[in-house]
Amino acid sequence: MNIEIWSVGKENEPYIAEGIQYYFQKTRPYTPVDLVVLQLPKKLATTDVERTKLQEEEMILKRLTNNQYLVLLDEKGKSLNSVQWSQQFQQLMNMGTKTFVLLIGGAFGVTENVRKRAAQCWSLSPLVFPHQLVRLIVSEQVYRAYSILNNSPYHHT
Q1: Taking the complete model, does pTM exceed 0.90, yes or no?
Q2: For the chain: N or C, fewer Cβ within 10 A?
Q3: DSSP codes of every residue in the chain
């Protein structure tokens, strides 16, 4: 199963990019993981929140295919611990999922259409984090999930 982390926003700061690549490298023996940064062109920038969300919706839904399993990461989503993440990954692999997409929405969240398109909605925390930091946290949690599934000593219970 391929994993893609989609994140609406700007490119990563170098220290964030380095951390993400660190976890992607550690996950590589188990599965490929890619980061896709979805950034609106500057010419479309607006201060209108609803218009921005609609533009982001178009960008997300245009990229999403029917064979991708989409999970939206949102502060109002279902709270899962690391073992539950790994169990979800295992279920998706058992279902024959080709590409698992974890979506980090834009600064103003996502539209209802994107929310409806997601198969599940998970929360990392009731706290709100900067998008770049969420990318790093999700990268680590993907590695942690695979280390749990493969009985690696990385995760301690």
Answers
A1: yes
A2: C
A3: -EEEEEEESSPPPHHHHHHHHHHHHHHTTT--EEEEEE---GGG--S-HHHHHHHHHHHHHHH--TTEEEEEEEEEEEE--HHHHHHHHHHHHHTT-SEEEEEE-BTTB--HHHHHH-SEEEES-SS---HHHHHHHHHHHHHHHHHHHTT-TTS--
* Tens-digit pLDDT profile for residues 102-149: 999 998 999 999 999 999 999 999 988 999 999 999 999 999 999 999
Residue ranges per structural domain of the chain:
2-149
The second-level CATH assignment, the architecture, of 2-149 is 3-Layer(aba) Sandwich (3.40)
Question: How far is residue 62's CA from residue 8's CA, in Å, rounded to a whole number?
Answer: 14
